[in-house]
Design goal:
The protein is of the alpha/beta class. It has one domain: Rossmann fold (3-Layer(aba) Sandwich), CATH 3.40.50. It is built from 8 helices and 7 strands, in the order βαβαβαβαββααααβ. The strands form 2 sheets. Strands 3-2-1-5-6 form a 5-stranded parallel beta sheet. Strands 4-7 form a two-stranded antiparallel sheet. The longest helix has 21 residues. The chain is globular. The mean pLDDT is 90. The structure holds iron/sulfur cluster. The site of iron/sulfur cluster has 14 residues, from helix 4. Iron/sulfur cluster (SF4) binds next to helix 4.
Amino acid sequence: MKIISLGAGVQSSTMFLLSCMGKLPRADVAIFADTGSEPAEVYEYLDYLRGLSGTYGIPIETVTQGSLENDILELSADKRIASIPFFIKSGTDSGGMSRRQCTAEYKLRPIKKRVRELLTERNEKKADVSIGISLDETQRMKPSKVNYMENHWPLIDMRWSRLDCLNWYERQGLRTPPRSACVFCPFHNDHEWKRIKDNDPDAWSRTLAVDNAIRKHPRFNHEVYLHREMKPIDEIQFGEDPSQISLFGNECEGYCGI
Ligand code: SF4
């Protein structure tokens, strides 16, 4: 069984479309793990891909572990939540990022559950899972930790970078995907934060709500922030440098930002 892990961002959508067009081995299904926290443009793009998938016959399934955003906003002192990579201001972890479990719990876990169900339905033992890591992010390639999934990285095999993917959309006359990530993800660089603030009022107000919620909350022992300067996000003067490194390289499984 061949599965595409679809984030509806640039790289994973490229992989999906190449598979639809027969330029990569044909997938049986593409799985989108919904954190309930993506910007509206990602869900719109997913609908666009669903329209194409009807033409090409590769189904897109959505799986979810619930809304990470709502879980943060509704967090109570005694409730456990998967750790998000917040910036920590004080205490023994001063200046560091909190441990990240959100990808494993809100993306990988529901994908693994669905893969197990599909394998059982088909009476198969193992699935090939294509992950949309491009040549500029090779450090994110990691083998699967479960024996029923074998990870593959077709864009690496093709030696395609993220820019190669974007150029391909232009040549094909296809709509360009947005960046796929939770609106409030601390891995964003300043260019991305500024783009959200200037162009997506809904995503920005959701980001402000999460930023407020995490700091006031008794669940955290230290002051935590979404931005690396460790100030409230609405006080940050975002730099203009588009080459400032984003921190998605820290998301080593390759399920976010693609
Ligand atoms: S995009 Fe960021 S906040 Fe969302 S699951 Fe991935 S690492 Fe966590």
